[in-house]
Amino acid sequence: MANLIIEKILLSYEVPLIALARKKNGDRYLGVNYEEGEKAFKFYFSKIKIEHLKSLYAEKIDVHYAVTKLHTGKYELGEVWGTVGEEFKTKGSAELPADVLPEPGMFIPGHAPESLSSDFKVVNIDGQWEISDLKTFSDSVQDCYSFGFALLGAAGRATTKKIASLFHKHPWRGGFSSVNFFRELYHNIPNEDRAGIRQITYASPGEIKFLMNGDVADSIRELVNLINEKDSPSLEIYKTTYRHLQDMGWLGKTASDINLSAEDVEHLNEVLTISCDAIGIGGSTEYILALAGGDPLSGIKMVLAYHRRLQALADYVATGKAQDIFHDA
C-alpha cells in the first residue's frame, strides 16, 4: 500500500490517460488509466526513475517500455480522477493482466524541454543513401555539433564547467581515446540543447530537418563549406600536421609521456595556431589551448579530431549527397 499524489497529467483524451504521481519521499510513479472503476478511474502505477522519466519526455522510450522493461517492484493500483494535487491510497500487485498494458508506440509528446537557442535547420539530400550513410552522417553531425557547442560556450555556466573539466581530464592519445571523448562530450550537453532529427524525407531529392542550436549549426555550415572551397588549405595542413606528429612519435602519447623542450612547446603552439586558422577556427585558438590545460600537443590533437569529423560532413556535401547543409527551414 502507498499514499500517492497526482503531480501532472501527461496524456489525456476527454479523460486523463497517463498520469505522473509521487510519494511524499519524492519517488515518482507513472500511472496508466485502464478502465472505469466504481468511484473513479482505475489506474496502475509503476515506479519510474528520473533519468527514465527524462527519456520518456524526450520520446526516446514509449509508455509500454516504461511500465514493463523498466518496471521494478510491485505495481500500485488505485482509483483516482486524475486531478493535479489529488491524494489517494493504492494497493500493491505483483503482476498485471496483459490486456491492460498500453499499446507499443504510445509516446508522450510535448513534454521534452527545448532550448530558446534552438532553430530548425535543414540538410537537402539526394543520390543513393544506404543505411550505413545514415549512421556515418548522423555520427559526424553529432560529433561536430558537440565540439562546436563546446567551442562556442553555448551552455550555461554549470554545463560549461563540466565540459571544460572533460577537456582537461582527457588524455588525448588518439584512436579510441578521441572516440570516447566525443561520446562523453555529447552526453554532457543538456537534453534540451542536443541536436535532434525532426523529419526525414527521402524521395531523391529529400531532406533531413534538425532542431539544434542555431549558432552551432551556422558555425558547422561555414567550416564545412570552407573545407570544400577551391584551394582550401585545411586538408593540406591536416596532413602536414598529422605527419609531423607521426614522425616525432607523438601521436599516441601525451605531453606527460614526452620530455618536451621549450623549443618543442613553442613550435607546437605555432602549429596549433596554423591548424586553427586553416580550419577556420582561428578565433578559438586561445580557448582551445585553455581547454587543453595549456598543453599545445593536446590542443593540436583536438583540432585534428574535429577536422576529421568536419571532413566527413564535407565529403557528403562534395559528392552532392548532402546539399546546402544546415540552412534555415
Features:
2 domains; 329 residues; four-stranded antiparallel beta sheet; 24% strand; elongated; alpha+beta; six-stranded antiparallel β-barrel
Structure description:
The chain is of the alpha+beta class and 329 residues long. The chain has 2 domains: 2-100, no CATH class; 118-328, no CATH class. Helices cover 42% and strands 24% of the residues. The protein contains 10 helices and 10 strands. The strands form 2 sheets. A 6-stranded antiparallel beta barrel has the order 1-2-3-4-5-6. A 4-stranded antiparallel β-sheet has the order 8-9-7-10. Strand 2 (15-22) and strand 3 form a beta hairpin. Helix 3 packs across helix 5 (176-187), helix 3 crosses helix 6 (214-227) and helix 7 packs across helix 10. It is elongated. It starts with a strand and ends with a strand. 32% of the residues are buried.
What is shown here, in short?
With 329 residues, the protein is an alpha+beta fold. It is built from ten helices and ten strands.
Characterize the overall form: elongated
What composes the largest sheet?
6 strands, antiparallel, barrel
Rg, Cα atoms, Å? 25 Å
For the secondary structure, the number of strands is 10
Query: Reading side by side through the largest sheet, how are the strands ordered?
Result: 1-2-3-4-5-6
Strand content: 15-25%
Low-confidence stretches: none
Distance between the termini: 52 Å
Number of structural units classed as domains: 2
Secondary-structure-based class equals alpha+beta
Helix content: 40-55%
Let me know the average pLDDT: 91
Q: What oligomeric assembly is this protein in?
A: single chain
